[in-house]
Write a structure and sequence with these properties.
The chain contains five helices and six strands. It has about 190 residues and is α+β, with helices and mostly antiparallel strands. It has one domain (about 1-190): Nuclear Transport Factor 2, Chain: A (Roll). Strand 3 (about 125-130) and strand 4 form a beta hairpin.
């Protein structure tokens, strides 16, 4: 009888420490990536150099496959594998160019990390505040554990989800022109961000 009561008590006591370990792992992964990006921004001489140098660390932490699939939403299932691959490549370029356009080479943000929270097993939200060029920005990084590797699957900036914002845009394009209309709109967006 005591053994049956002891086991659940031990397991319940273990859950907070498991959640804390997950929080720590997600936050640590994000902090390393942010530090790496800030170091690149500090050293960049031109925007082209910034884009080139910042791409590898962002591709390690941002899960473009998941972000693209969620941004396209239910229409994703109607894309062929080749179209899914093209959409992911286009979305990756779009996000990288949009993200790097926010930075001026040599000027860097100061980022403050706030306590993270677990939204579900394997999912964490890491809130941050960044000071950049005299303005304060709140961003929450939604992260997921992908086989022991924490990656960003969405970013909520000032209360607006990047994935939800793109989903609204992509859904309208899909309804207007189907799969080809969606891909054409994505191609135009990429061309416009050069």
């Amino acid at each position: 009888m005591k053994t049956r009561l002891l086991l659940p008590a031990l397991l319940i006591g273990l859950f907070p420490s498991l959640a804390l370990a997950a929080n720590d792992a997600a936050e640590a992964r994000l902090k390393v990536s942010v530090d790496e990006v800030v170091a690149i921004v500090k050293q960049a001489k031109t925007r082209d150099a910034l884009i080139s140098d910042i791409k590898p660390p962002l591709q390690k932490i941002l899960n473009f496959g998941v972000m693209t699939r969620r941004s396209i939403g239910p229409a994703w299932r109607q894309l062929t594998p080749a179209q899914q691959e093209e959409a992911t490549k286009l979305f990756t370029v779009l996000i990288l160019r949009t993200y790097t356009a926010k930075f001026t080479p040599g000027e860097f943000p100061l980022v403050e990390f706030k306590p993270s929270s677990s939204t579900a097993p394997g999912r964490e939200e890491v809130p941050t505040t960044a000071m950049y060029k005299g303005s304060r920005y709140n961003a929450t990084y939604r992260m997921e554990d992908q086989n022991g590797n924490w990656t960003i699957t969405d970013v909520v900036i000032e209360g607006v989800s990047l994935v939800a914002d793109y989903r609204t845009q992509f859904d309208a394009e899909f309804k207007r022109g189907g799969v080809e209309g969606l891909l054409s709109a994505m191609r135009r967006s990429v061309a416009d961000t050069k």
